[in-house]
Amino acid sequence: MIRALLFDVFGTCVDWRSSVAREVAAAAGSAAIDGVDGEAFADAWRARYQPQMETVRNGSRPWTDLDVLHREALDGVLAEQGLEALGDAERDALNRAWHRLDPWPDTREGLLRLRRRYVVAPVSNGHVALVVALARHGGLVWDTVLGAEPAQAYKPAPEAYLRSVATLRLTPEETMMVAAHASDLVAAAACGLRTAFVHRPTEHGPGQTTDLVAPAGVDVEAHDLIDLAGLLGA
Amino acid sequence: MIRALLFDVFGTCVDWRSSVAREVAAAAGSAAIDGVDGEAFADAWRARYQPQMETVRNGSRPWTDLDVLHREALDGVLAEQGLEALGDAERDALNRAWHRLDPWPDTREGLLRLRRRYVVAPVSNGHVALVVALARHGGLVWDTVLGAEPAQAYKPAPEAYLRSVATLRLTPEETMMVAAHASDLVAAAACGLRTAFVHRPTEHGPGQTTDLVAPAGVDVEAHDLIDLAGLLGA
Fold first, then answer.
1. pTM, to two decimals
2. What pLDDT score does B76 carry?
3. Which of A100, B22, B62, B151 is deepest in the core (most CB within 10 A)?
4. Domain residues of chain B, as ranges?
5. In a mutagenesis test of the A interface, which of B92, B98, B132 is the best target, namely the one with the most A β-carbons within 10 Å?
6. How many Å lie between the alpha carbon of B66 and the closest alpha carbon of chain A?
7. How do residues B207-223 score in pLDDT, each as one tens digit?
8. Using the beta-carbon criterion (under 8 Å), do B150 and A145 form an inter-chain contact?
């Protein structure tokens, strides 16, 4: 019997690409920097994410939160694209775009419905303060914020899932990971959690080629979080 | 400027004594054990709480959560009162009374109002799963659950406050501890937090003699959480 649902956040609950693209375009406009493609910039910024976290996962770097990693990646992308004109204060402000990502249209209602029946908690690679900010920005309600920071492990490391489950005093079998990404669900399933795949076919824009199909073996497959609520009887 | 409110839970947000007394009386009734005074039993159970936590705080015992401490205390009180007839399964069930404590009548509405303007998080000595259960039982909404377990320190140890503040990426001065107990507020103030005293003059029953008056130096003094919301402009 499922008691708790654990949620990936970036891409599954919030539309990071559109939100970041909008803020990049606005920041470039304010700084009178022309020729910036917000979507392409968001993709380039996000592309540095997994390699950065890998340096923490493999132990070559001590625990470092996403505010720091996002800022380093921002500096890298600005340098790469010849946009060093953006000042330090403007970079700090733009970096906070990751605290203001809009939820997908179904997220708020879906979570409210699911919380009636299940404990709902994010298991994100974002730190607690960032995920709290996203929830307040998007009107989301969680029972508590779990994930990489409390577990001191970035997904898909097993500790990220298992420490979250242990904090809830549940077994992996009583817990379901909800994500739009096969890599997250495969890792959660390897830890014994149930899995739900949520289709987010435009997370990476209209030309998305990844995660268009549920990975083999998922327990549930849903079009969005409202659909998931229906499928899970909430 | 205050950005987040941190809440004591037992006594400040929930009425542990009435709730536990009711469940003790019910458990005694079901087991056909006569002559049990629910309120007196609740008081005796709770009286073991600070000495137990002190063994963790002073390092003579490793980190131990409240489910374990409550159960050990329950066994002690049952032995003391000659009530060993209560079976193991019944003891486990009664121990969970601490997961089902009713909120004070103003808590739900007060927190909802306060959350509109401030980050709200419990900083309780209860572990995350227990505090999540209390919130779901009472219809409370938190931004996230902080406190003794994530900090690995029982209040009034400074780490319980300072690690909670750090998790929110705030300074102590941006944070206000809300509690019905002088000891909690004095310890929080010593860490640099602002403080709000909430009057709970019947937490310990009609004959309460402690915490009837706000400690010197608190920033705010409120009759209940709805009053606090008004005082803090929420």
1. 0.97
2. 98
3. B151
4. 4-15+101-231, 16-99
5. B132
6. 12
7. 999 999 999 999 999 99
8. no
The owner of tokens 């003794």 is: B148
Chain-centre distance for alpha carbon A88: 26
A157 half-sphere exposure, CB direction, 13 A CA radius? 21
| A4-15+101-231 CATH, one of 3.30.450.40, 3.40.50.1000, 3.40.50.1380, 3.10.150.10 | 3.40.50.1000
User: Across the interface, which of B119, B132, B135 has its CB nearest the CB of A132?
Assistant: B119
- Cβ B9 vs Cβ B124: under 8 Å: yes
Q: Are A98 and A126 in contact (CB under 8 A)?
A: yes
Query: Distance between CA atoms of A38 and A30, rounded to whole angstroms?
Result: 14
Q: Return the DSSP state at B54.
A: H
Chain A residue with minimum CA distance to B112: A141
Assigned fold of A16-99: DNA polymerase; domain 1 (1.10.150)
Per CB-CB distance under 8 Å, the chain B contacts of A139 are none
Distance from CA of A190 to the nearest CA of B (A): 24
Q: Chain A residues with CB inside 8 Å of B128's CB?
A: 144, 167-168
pLDDT in tens, A86-140: 999 999 999 999 999 999 999 999 999 999 999 999 999 999 999 999 999 999 9
pLDDT at A201 (0 to 100): 98
Pairing of strands B4-7, A175-179: unpaired
State mean pLDDT over B223-232: 98
Inter-residue contact A214 to A98 (CB < 8 Å): no
Number of CB pairs, chain A paired with chain B, less than 8 A apart: 46
Residues of B in Cβ contact (< 8 Å) with A150: 150
Q: If pLDDT is split at 50, 70 and 90, which confidence band does A222 have?
A: very high
CATH topology agreement for domains A4-15+101-231 and A16-99: no
pLDDT tens-digit readout, B155-171:
999 999 999 999 999 99
Q: Do B135 and A143 touch (CB under 8 A)?
A: yes
pLDDT of residue A118: 98
What is the phi/psi pair of residue B36, to 5°?
Answer: -95, 125
SS3 sequence, A3-40? CEEEECCECCCECHHHHHHHHHHHHHHHCCCCCCCHHH
- Give all strands of the β-sheet with B220-222 in edge-to-edge order: B146-147, B119-124, B4-7, B175-179, B194-198, B220-222
Which amino acid would we find at residue B17? R
Strands B175-179 and B194-198: parallel
**pLDDT tens across A56-94, in order?**
999 999 999 999 999 999 999 999 998 999 999 999 999
Which residue carries 């910024």 as its tokens?
A45
Quick one: tokens of B195? 């403080």
Across the interface, do A144 and B144 touch by the CB < 8 Å criterion? yes
